[in-house]
Amino acid sequence: MPTVETPQTAAAGVPGAELTCAPWPPRPRRRPTPPARTVRTRSGALEPVVAAYAAWLDEQEAAVATLPEHLRALGAEALAEARQVLGQLAEVSTTS
């Protein structure tokens, strides 16, 4: 059985994005505490991610155009699927 080792990919930081593992929407606390900072809406937190992903996909589209001809269709298919994901992410980011 053939095997392959795939290195782990580390996601790049996105300036302006507010990424957290906190549940959405935030759960009410028993005792109200003053907020330490203002938390942006979900759309405000994800907009930089959507913009960065869209820009990255544009770069990948240019890269697909330079692939050997026999690989371009596969690259275009992967980009089409990624753009569907981008659309879903954009939709989620605009609904708060």
Strand tally is: 0
Strand count, sense and barrel status of the largest sheet are:
none
| Percent in strands | under 5%
> Radius of gyration, rounded?
19 Å
Which H/E pattern describes the elements?
Answer: HH
The whole-number mean of residue pLDDT values reads 80
As residue ranges, the low-confidence spans are none
Total DSSP helices: 2
Distance between the termini: 48 Å
What percent of the residues sit in helical stretches (DSSP H or I)?
40-55%
- The best one-word shape is extended
**Class based on secondary structure composition and strand pairing:** mainly alpha
Structural features, described:
With 96 residues, the chain is mainly alpha-helical. It contains two helices and no strands. Helix 1 packs antiparallel against helix 2. The protein is extended.
Name its key features.
96 residues; mainly alpha
Question: What's this entry about, in short?
Answer:
It is built from two helices and no strands. With about 100 residues, it is mostly helical.
Q: What is the secondary structure topology, with strand pairs?
A:
Layout lengths: L41 H24 L3 H26 L2
Helix pairs in contact: 1-2
